[in-house]
Design goal:
Strands 5-4-1-6-11 form a five-stranded mixed sheet, with helices on both faces. Strands 16-13-19-17-18 form a five-stranded mixed sheet. Strands 10-7-12 form a three-stranded mixed sheet. 30% of the residues lie in helices and 30% in strands. It has twelve helices and 19 strands. With 385 residues, the protein is α/β, with parallel strands linked by helices. Helix 3 crosses helix 5. Bound molecules: magnesium ion (MG). Magnesium ion binds next to strand 13. The site of magnesium ion has 4 residues, from strand 13.
């Protein structure tokens, strides 16, 4: 098979049968939208030159967020039916002068390069290819209260991507009188040749809430757990209060530092950066940089969070221990937890704040300063070697 290959991803649906607050193609699995997984598989394949996504005009913002980091053609708007959306997507792809096109549904997120390879290998200037699977369950027809068996050896389940010679598919879309639920239907109705490829259960279409739970499990298999630790110390100097965990506490001293000297948030940021293997707080926010003079340390937490989001990560747990003789942390612990949970954009029970003295030993025991340590657990996409 020779020629230029492009891909079209249909993501124009507005259905929420999977139970989420957004159409399922924008629902996250393993920190990335289903659409992201589907489009990435195509965009990262060496033989596919360009990927076009068709979306509903109401979901531009969701689209942009979903495909962040991927190189795709600018999205085009779909039509009322799937077939309208495919036709509009093919029209937009015409400019690329492709020889072949793979048409894929965004709701089938776990497409492998091996499957794409098989579909491409089967293409010829007059042959389309499609993944299909047999039906394992017994199938019966229920009509007027009566059951009749349907011979399942005659049945095939059709999946996507479906691969076609581009010009012929575009022509069929221009002339087809009837709506079909996929593109191979038009191809077969026109009497054209199809090569059947063995499909895969992992190409399953995410439709119900059960499917969504399955998709999350699949994606989780592609994630790893990462743990980072952080430690910070600041000295007491003349003053009238400290800020710890973002909470102002009255005290007869303050903490010395370039920023607001929030030991707890600094330890937290170092733990987050540690879990990301992205250096330490001093590297990202140098104390000699005037921007951070007197800075609210929440800024550092938000920056670390942004780095984590850019990596497709999510927080599982943050555990912080504050070490000092005074001031008393206990009365402020709940406020700190609530503040940190809000900063990290996680539920309250993902955040733990503990406190200890050092039994009057060492610098904290002598009330010369405060220390904090933090452990952060993240979920991160598995890297590629
Ligand atoms: Mg510090």
């Amino acid at each position: 098979m020779q020629g230029k290959i492009v891909a079209l991803v249909v993501a124009g649906g507005t259905g929420r049968r999977a139970g989420g607050p957004v159409p399922k193609q924008f629902a996250p699995a393993g920190g990335k939208a289903l659409l992201h997984h589907a489009a990435k598989a195509l965009a990262s394949h060496p033989k596919i030159g360009a990927v076009q996504v068709v979306i509903h005009p109401d979901y531009h913002a969701e689209y942009e967020a979903a495909v962040a980091g991927l190189t795709l053609l600018p999205a085009v708007h779909g039509g009322a039916e799937r077939q309208d959306s495919v036709r509009l997507g093919l029209k937009a792809l015409e400019k690329q002068k492709p020889d072949y096109v793979l048409v894929h549904d965004a709701a089938r997120p776990f497409l492998t390069h091996a499957m794409i390879d098989k579909l491409i290998e089967a293409l010829t200037p007059s042959t389309a290819s499609v993944p299909t699977l047999p039906v394992a369950d017994t199938v019966r027809r229920l009509k007027d209260g009566k059951l009749s068996d349907v011979p399942r050896e005659q049945l095939l389940r059709f999946q996507t991507p479906q691969a076609f010679p581009f010009k012929t598919l575009l022509e069929l879309h221009g002339t087809s009188p009837a709506y079909a639920t996929d593109d191979i239907a038009l191809w077969v109705a026109a009497g054209k040749v199809v090569k059947y490829i063995t499909g895969s259960e992992t190409l399953r279409k995410v439709t119900s809430a059960d499917d969504m739970a399955w998709a999350q499990q699949q994606a989780n298999g592609q994630m790893r757990t990462s743990v980072g630790s952080g430690f910070d110390v600041h000295a007491f100097i003349e003053g009238d209060g400290v800020t710890v965990g973002g909470i102002a506490i009255a005290h007869d001293k303050k903490l010395d530092g370039h920023s607001d000297a929030d030991v707890a948030l600094h330890a937290l940021v170092d733990a987050m950066l540690g879990a990301l293997s992205e250096g330490d707080i001093g590297q990202h926010f140098p104390p000699n940089d005037a921007r951070w003079k007197g800075a609210d340390s929440a800024v550092f937490v938000r920056e670390a969070l942004k780095k984590m989001h850019a990596r497709g990560g999510s927080i599982e747990q943050a555990d912080i221990t504050i070490i000092c003789e005074a001031p008393k942390i206990g009365p402020h612990r709940d406020a700190m937890r609530a503040n940190i949970a809000q900063l990290l954009e996680v539920p309250l029970d993902y955040v733990s704040v503990k406190a200890t003295t050092t039994e009057q030993l060492g610098f904290t025991g002598r009330r010369e300063g405060m220390a904090a340590q933090a452990t952060v657990t993240l979920r991160l996409p598995r890297g590629e070697m």
